[in-house]
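Much of the work behind modern protein science is quiet bookkeeping, done one molecule at a time. The protein below has been through that process, and both of its lines are reproduced in full.
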Amino acid sequence: MNVRLAERMVERWASANADAIGLDPHHIQASYIYNPGGFGNLSLRLSDGCTRLHVKLAPPDRCERLQQWAGVSGYLAEHYAAPKLVHRIDREIVEGYPYGLVFEYIEEAVPLAEALNPEPVLTGVIEAASKLHRDGILRGMLPEAEARTYADAFEDEYISRFTEDLEGIRGSRELLRDFVSDETISWFGEEIERLRETVRQTPAFGLPARDVVHNDLNGNNVLTCGNDGFRIIDWDDLSGQGDAAMDYSVLLWPLRHGPSWPIWREKVLAAAGDAVAERLELYFRAKLLDDVIDVLADYVESEEVPEHREEAQRKAKAVHLRSYPQYLAQYGAG
């Protein structure tokens, strides 16, 4: 992807639609926003020197998710501190991205992952997540597919991702050869199947999945604002048939191995109950495996963004090399 060309195309579109998005057409600049979590969507910051906006463009396979977010954006902004929707983009302004949304840009915010004292904010986010998971009004606003279990939700979130990642890793084998062995790649496939089978054999995963979930509630998607305030962004993966344990696992992952974990586990128990806490443990296992496998897919995908390739590959390699022995020590080699 040519980042500078994408920026110019978005600037041209924004100048032509300046009245609709509330910017001065003569001073618009677009800046690519590097997303360390992946390269699926394309995010840019728009500014006319006074006002800033956030543009998010989706490739064809992710358009439906952005369209769903747009449909419930007002409710999310009112009840869950989501950014306000400014405009919908219904045509391709950057090649390969046929749909997009323009949101308010949240000023003077720090990602929870970088906050000096995140714990007061975390308590509020857990309360908001607990409310979200039980929100029948929002569930009724979302499309509903055929009934599924928590095991199905887990497979959709992690097993499918790992399987797709593995295909990409095998297809780009030479890129990884200096630090990922053939034996390790074979182990990936075996471990994915072991995890799938463990989930299927766990009774708590056999229950119907009816939780409303954000599905990517990590420390970069929660922004801290002022005194214990926060905003929640990136609602692309919102689902009315998910698992609350997924949200808690991603949100609390940085604390999982710290001394305060028993306190936070009690907060989850109080907010969600024993079954969620039981499933949480397998979601933590999957989260660690994600840091073993999915980061290698990010390593491969970063080839498409030369401007950030070196940084992205350095970080992905470091995460993999740290997480793989940790996973083996905690869960065994099979």
User: Anything to note?
Assistant: The two ends are 39 Å apart (CA to CA). Residues 274-301 form the longest helix (28 residues). DSSP finds twelve helices and ten strands in the chain. The chain has two domains: 3-105, 111-331.
